[in-house]
Amino acid sequence: MNKLLIVDDSAFMRGILKDLLSQHIPPLEIHEADSKAAASDVLKKVKPDLVLLDIVMKDNEFEGVEVLKEIKDLYSNTKVVMLTSVGQAAIVEECKKLGAQDYIEKPFDKNNIIEVVDKYLV
Q: How many C-beta neighbours within 10 Å does residue 18 have?
């Protein structure tokens, strides 16, 4: 069973993603984290196959980038897809250079989310 970690400070966004993906990409073990510290804990315990990672969390523009660096340093085989808002093109490019596989722009299209997650869980 594939393991997915959703890292976003918005409980609402995590819930939407979890509901959508659990319906369209079973079997999938989904875990959640709302901060860098929570993500670190889950990463150690779960070792997910894919991480959906929000760039901006808790009003910190670079918290998602910091989590990405940690993932790539400690779990280099873990695939990461960044969740980004419109207007964050420079940060997205930095994330790709750091090892992120892809990005999904918010507000997202549900079919795009399903397609991207399915692509990286093969």
A: 17
Q: Give the Cα separation of 58 and 52 in Å (integer).
A: 16
Interior CA angle at 43 toward 102 and 23, to 5°?
A: 60
- Provide the domain limits for residue 58: 2-120
CATH number for the domain spanning 86: value is: 3.40.50.2300
- Parallel, antiparallel, or unpaired: how do β-strands 102-106 and 28-33 relate? unpaired
Q: Over the stretch 31-75, which tens digit does the pLDDT of each residue have?
A: 999 999 999 999 999 999 999 999 988 767 778 999 999 999 999
Residues 10-29 have pLDDT tens digits of 999 999 999 999 999 989 99
Burial of 50 (0-12, 13-18, 19+ CB in 10 A): buried
User: Between the CA of residue 85 and those of 18, 53, 54, 76, 113, what are the distances in Å?
Assistant: 19, 12, 9, 25, 14
pLDDT of residue 86: 64
Q: How many domains would you assign to the chain? A: 1
